[in-house]
Structures are given as C-alpha cells and as structure tokens.
Write a structure and sequence with these properties.
Elements: H1 3-24, H2 29-70, H3 72-85, H4 87-140
Helix pairs in contact: 1-4, 2-4
C-alpha cells in the first residue's frame, strides 16, 4: 500500500469514527456496548499487526546492523573508491535508500495512527455510553 493510499485509508477511518459517534447517540446501551467490544477487538487486531510489523522492522534493522558491522572495513574501502569514480551514482543510491527508509518510517507511523483511531473509537463509544448511563441515573433519581 502506498503512503497516499495509507493516508486515504486513515482519512476514511476518521470519517467512520465520526459516523460511529453520531450513530451511537441514538443507540441503546447494549448496542453501544456491542460496538465498544467490536471496536476494542479491532484495536487489538490492529495493535497486534502493528506490533508484528514493528518486530519485523526491528529484526530487519538488527540484522542489517550486524551485517554492517561485520564488513565495515571492506565497505569503507569500497565507498572511498566509489566516491572517487561514481559520485553521482553514489548520491542516487544513497538518496534511494534514504527515500525507502523515510517511506518505511511514514508507513509505520500511519499504522500507529490507524491503531490510535481504533482505540479512540472504543474510548469515544465508552464515553457516550457512560454519559447515557449517568443521564439515565440522574433522570431516575428523585430531585433533592
């Protein structure tokens, strides 16, 4: 999924959250509780997916770091040679690596934002339910 597609998806999810909030104001406590459970399950699933992706990213970074440390001296010699002969090509490759790294970081941040929206949805629905319950209790209580 491209970054643009991830942002579009995130935007759609925020719109769904607004729709969910508006709809929840007309629902019974049982309906809201069912939606809370669904939202929490969705958040847990997203969290698990993000955690798996973060673990994969961490594993990949650790593996890359170990590989880098293992052959740093040969890479330095190679780099010096390339700098002398192929500066422009080196710059393009470095820019590509930087771009890929930045895109990966952006994708990870968008995954986190998606998880945060899932949690926010559950929290918003929980707040609506708590307010409805408090209002019902206040209406049922004798004035005094």
């Amino acid at each position: 999924m491209t970054l643009s597609e991830q942002v579009d998806s995130l935007q759609a999810r925020v719109a769904e959250l607004k729709t969910s909030l508006d709809a929840s104001r007309k629902e019974t406590s049982e309906q809201i509780k069912a939606r809370i459970a669904a939202a929490k399950a969705k958040a847990d699933a997203t969290r698990a997916a993000v955690a798996d992706k973060a673990a994969d990213t961490a594993d990949r970074a650790d593996s890359q770091w170990q590989s880098f440390k293992a052959d740093v001296s040969s890479k330095m010699d190679e780099m010096k040679t390339r700098i002398d002969r192929q500066r422009d090509q080196q710059d393009v490759k470095a820019a590509e690596r930087d771009a890929v790294r930045a895109e990966d970081n952006a994708a990870d941040s968008l995954d986190f934002a998606a998880w945060a929206i899932d949690v926010a949805e559950a929290d918003v629905l929980d707040a609506v339910d708590a307010r409805a319950w408090a209002d019902a209790r206040a209406a049922a209580s004798p004035p005094g």
